[in-house]
Design goal:
The chain is an alpha+beta fold. The chain is built from five helices and ten strands. The longest helix has 16 residues. The chain starts with 14 loop residues before the first strand and ends with a strand.
Length: about 280
C-alpha cells in the first residue's frame, strides 16, 4: 500500500508520559556513560547531584509521539532513521512528567524511498520543555507520486582540522542495554531480522550513536553542563556495528559547532552522522 502524502498535518492526541531517575540512569549507561560521568550514571554519589544527558528526550515516550498510522503501513525491516534534532528549553530533570503532542510535517517521495518528517513537542504545564524533529527514511516506499521535498547538504564542516575530537568505544553488546530504554526493534539484536533488512549482523540503534555523540559534544564544548546544551541536529549517514569505535569531530563556527561522527572498525572509517550542528547558551 503506498504512503499517504495527505497525512501531513495529522496530529496525535496529547498524552502524558513520565520518567524516573532510574530511566535517566539506564539511558546514560546505554549510550556509554560510566564511572567518569557519575552525575549522569549515579543518584547517590557523595557530593554529586544527578543530572540528565541532553539527548535523553529521544527515549521519553519512545514510539508514541507521532501519528504514523496516518501515513500508511510501513515495513519495519526497511525503516531507518534519517535525521534527528532536539531543542531544549530547559535542562531535563531526573524525574518528571510531560504532555506530548506529535505532528506529521512532511511525507516526501524520493523515488526509491520515502521520507517522513515529524515534530514532537513536550510541555510541563504551559511551558515547553523540549521539541524533537525527526525524519524516517523508508527504503522501497517511494514512487507514490508525492513531492520530492527538500534536499542538499547543511552544516558543512570547514576545510581545516577540527577544534575537538572525542573518541568512544562501543560495546559488542551495546544494543542490548540501549534497547531497554524503549526501542525494541529486533533489527538491532536479532540476526535473522537484520538479514531481512539486508545486514549481515544487527546494527546499533542510530539514536544510540546519537547519544554517544551528544556526550562528546556535552563534555568537549559545554564543560559537562547540560544547561549550556540548547540544540543539536544531525543526519544519519551510515549504520554502526556494535563494537566499533566512534570518533566525533567538532568545528567551532559563527553558526554553532558543526560536527561529524565516524565509525572505526577493521581498518575502515566511515562517516555515520553528518550535517551535525550544536548550539549552546
Amino acid at each position: 500500500m503506498p504512503l499517504n502524502p495527505d497525512a501531513v498535518g495529522a496530529t496525535s492526541e496529547p498524552f502524558e508520559v513520565s520518567w524516573t531517575s532510574d530511566d535517566a540512569l539506564l539511558y546514560a549507561v546505554g549510550v556509554g556513560a560510566g564511572h567518569e560521568e557519575l552525575a549522569f550514571t549515579t543518584e547517590n554519589s557523595e557530593g554529586v547531584e544527578q543530572r540528565v544527558l541532553p539527548t535523553f528526550p529521544v527515549v521519553i515516550g519512545y514510539g508514541r509521539g507521532a501519528p504514523m498510522r496516518a501515513v500508511g503501513e510501513i515495513d519495519r525491516t526497511q525503516l531507518v532513521h534519517g535525521r534527528q534534532g532536539i531543542t531544549l528549553h530547559a535542562p531535563i530533570p531526573p524525574e518528571g512528567t510531560v504532555t506530548i503532542t506529535g505532528e506529521i510535517t512532511g511525507v516526501w517521495d524520493k523515488g526509491q524511498a520515502a521520507v517522513i518528517d515529524t515534530v514532537t513537542t513536550a510541555r510541563q504545564g504551559d511551558d515547553e520543555l523540549y521539541t524533537l524533529t525527526s525524519s524516517a527514511f523508508v527504503r522501497g516506499a517511494g514512487g507514490f507520486g508525492g513531492e520530492r521535498g527538500p534536499s542538499g547538504g547543511a552544516n558543512t564542516a570547514p576545510e581545516r582540522d577540527p577544534d575537538h575530537v572525542v573518541r568512544y568505544s562501543t560495546s559488542r553488546d551495546q544494543a542490548f542495554t540501549y534497547r531497554l530504554s524503549g526501542d525494541r526493534n529486533p533489527l538491532h539484536t536479532d540476526p535473522s531480522f537484520a538479514a531481512q533488512g539486508g545486514f549481515d549482523t544487527p546494527i546499533l540503534h542510530g539514536l544510540c550513536t546519537y547519544g554517544f555523540t551528544g556526550r562528546a559534544l556535552l563534555h568537549a564544548v559545554c564543560g559537562g553542563d547540560p544547561a549550556r546544551f540548547a540544540h543539536v541536529e544531525g543526519r544519519f549517514a551510515a549504520p554502526v556495528f556494535p563494537g566499533e569505535e566512534l570518533a566525533v569531530r567538532m568545528w567551532e563556527t559563527d553558526d554553532g559547532v558543526v560536527f561529524t561522527t565516524s565509525a572505526v572498525g577493521d581498518g575502515d572509517e566511515r562517516v555515520v552522522i553528518d550535517q551535525g550542528l550544536l548550539r549552546t547558551t
